[in-house]
Design a protein that fits this description.
Elements (H helix, E strand, L loop, with lengths): L12 E4 L5 H12 L3 E5 L14 H11 L3 E5 L6 H15 L4 E4 L14 H29 L2 E6 L2 H4 L6 H20 L5 E9 L3 H5 L5 H14 L6 H8 L10 E5 L2 E4 L17 H12 L9 H4 L6
Parallel strand pairs: 1-2, 1-4, 2-3, 4-5, 5-6, 6-7
Antiparallel strand pairs: 7-8
């Protein structure tokens, strides 16, 4: 951990879920470096949800404290209403308040859609989408009483653009976008803001995505390790939790390598009007020829981001 300290988040208390590794860990460490008191939440499970060994949250806390920061570990699940509330109460009881939540916890159950089972679908949606809801809702009461707060949710290009074998993950991540947008509107009167980040960073989730031969995948991943690191995502998450971002809400950001970018959000792009109304037949005659050039192609993330991250 870089021992250079700043005060962008001085006196703020931040919860980072899924902070035992990858993007969540990098965010937690940078939060502490910027002066925040951090609740490092991680259930300590593998990507598929099985319990692993030593607590990764405790290891991150030790790293933060060794660099002079303040942090406490938490091993509760975000997937359940009661345990999510206990995470927030842990922040309040330990540090006296809660100023921001970064929803980064997640698991994967990748499967081609015709083989995707209901248990695999629900497990992923429960951690990602329900987890974001549970944590945000638990914090909302405190934010309202305090007159302010910040939420940052990790979405994904798997949903925003497209991915193969990840219908459950994509559905959850797009649900998070709608959740964040609604929170930003409902809670604006209380000074609460809510934003999304679609991160590009080498992590266990990136490593697990199928589609390449083992040799090609290793070459691809080694390049990703060097050019898209979790610590390159962390500054954007920290900024969105800081007072410097007090007027930024309801947005979807991306971070890839040394790039940051803003995503557009769905708006009508073409219209057709027929004075006498439409029938299935007239739609068949006119809609496709008129709109074909405006249809969004079935692209994947790597098709859209055609340039290398640097």
């Amino acid at each position: 951990m870089d021992n250079t300290r700043n005060d962008l988040l001085a006196d703020k208390v931040v919860i980072v879920t899924g902070a035992g590794g990858g993007v969540g860990k990098a965010v937690a460490i940078e939060m502490a470096r910027q002066g925040a008191k951090v609740v490092v939440n991680d259930l300590g499970v593998s990507l598929t949800g099985e319990k692993e060994g030593d607590s990764p949250a405790e290891q991150v806390v030790a790293e933060i404290r060794a660099a002079g920061g303040q942090a406490v570990a938490d091993g509760e699940s975000v997937a359940e209403w009661a345990s999510a509330h206990r995470i927030v109460e842990r922040a309040v009881s330990t540090f006296g308040r809660i100023d921001a939540v970064v929803n980064s916890a997640g698991i994967l159950r990748d499967a081609i859609f015709h083989k995707l089972g209901p248990d695999e679908f629900e497990a992923v949606v429960r951690v990602h989408l329900f987890g974001a809801f549970h944590m945000s809702r638990a914090a909302a009461t405190h934010f309202r009483e305090q007159g302010g707060g910040a939420l940052v949710h990790m979405t994904s290009t798997a949903g925003l653009i497209g991915s193969i074998g990840q219908a459950n993950y994509a559905a959850a991540k797009m649900g998070i976008v709608g959740l964040s947008r609604s929170i930003s509107m409902d809670m604006a009167r209380f000074g609460v803001r809510s934003n999304c980040i679609a991160p590009h960073a080498f992590s266990r989730m990136i490593e697990s995505v199928p589609g390449l031969s083992p040799e090609d995948q290793e070459r691809y991943l080694e390049k990703r390790r060097q050019t898209t690191r979790p610590d390159q995502i962390a500054p954007l998450a920290v900024f969105l939790c800081a007072d410097a971002a007090k007027d930024v809400t309801g947005q979807i950001f991306g971070a890839r390598g040394n790039e940051v970018y803003l995503y557009n959000q769905p708006r009508p792009v073409r219209t057709l009007h027929r004075a006498e109304g439409w029938t299935p037949g007239t739609l068949a005659q006119q809609l496709v020829p008129a709109w074909r050039s405006s249809f969004t192609p079935a692209e994947r993330t790597r098709d859209v981001f055609g340039w290398e991250a640097i």
